Amino acid sequence: MRWRSRPIFVTNRPSKALASLKLPTLVDRLADPQSHQNQQPPYARNWHRSVKPEYGVLVGICTHLGCIPVFYPQPNPTQPAANWQGRHFWPCHGSKYDLAGRVFSGVPAPYNLPVPPYHFVTDTLIRIGENPKDVNFDFASIRQI
Asked: Is pLDDT at 78 greater than 70 in this prediction?
């Protein structure tokens, strides 16, 4: 799906995947695990970077060179990189992001993936580009895309 000509990744994150987002072995490897940089609306500034933990909504453009990632959800000892933990991988320069769009330390990308404004119209229908009622977030205020 696209919003403002940008690819949007909507990911269903089961309970096991959500639990992995809190593991110290992952969090310790992230550059901005608490999302201090302004890359998301205030309603997504939490450990899962979303409105509902089970659904991730991210702009799928790397914050380094702007290329689009490949999603390799399953761990693999060799592909797409050595000791792959499973997540988003940018083949054009090797940046890695977790299932919440948080960037790993030591990669070229400087920021977490942006979270666009969105809200749930129903339990299963998401509207991208509109904030929840009574929230004002301007996507142009993010640090980098």
From this structure: no
